Amino acid sequence: MAMGGISVWQLLIVVLIVVLLFGTKKLRGMGSDLGSAVKGFKKAMSDDDKESEKNQQDADFKQESLADKKEQTDAFTPKDQEKTKDNDRV
């Protein structure tokens, strides 16, 4: 037996005390709750990974900054702006 380690007998005594304190039904319920929490966490992580992969694959458009958009709006000539105003009046 190694010094500072937990032997099999010590582990069995701890398990026995825990079972006596909480009861088997409560331990079973806690175990199933813990299992479902881990399962839900794994599902959320895999859904998040799938979502990020989908976003990377489906991005077939060019990402533009606000500065690019401003340049596009500044590219209108005054003549184009007048046409737009005329169409708004109709």
TrEMBL record:
Compartments reported by the entry: Cell membrane
Q: Where is this region: Disordered?
A: 43-90
Q: Pfam families of this UniProt entry?
A: TatA_B_E
Does the keyword DNA repair belong to this entry?
Answer: no
Per the record, membrane topology reads: Single-pass membrane protein
Write out the entry's keywords from A to Z: Cell membrane, Membrane, Protein transport, Translocation, Transmembrane, Transmembrane helix, Transport
Q: Which spans does this entry mark as compositional bias, Basic and acidic residues?
A: 44-90
- Name the domain of life this protein comes from: Bacteria
Keyword Cell inner membrane assigned to the entry: answer is: no
The protein's predominant localisation is membrane
Membrane-spanning regions, if any? Answer: 6-24
The protein's role, per its UniProt record:
Part of the twin-arginine translocation (Tat) system that transports large folded proteins containing a characteristic twin-arginine motif in their signal peptide across membranes. TatA could form the protein-conducting channel of the Tat system.
Quaternary context: The Tat system comprises two distinct complexes: a TatABC complex, containing multiple copies of TatA, TatB and TatC subunits, and a separate TatA complex, containing only TatA subunits. Substrates initially bind to the TatABC complex, which probably triggers association of the separate TatA complex to form the active translocon.
Q: Which NCBIfam families match?
A: PRK02958.1, PRK04598.1, tatAE
Q: Which family does it belong to?
A: Belongs to the TatA/E family.
Q: What is this protein called?
A: Sec-independent protein translocase protein TatA
Q: Organism, per UniProt?
A: Oceanisphaera marina
Q: What is the lineage of its organism?
A: Bacteria, Pseudomonadati, Pseudomonadota, Gammaproteobacteria, Aeromonadales
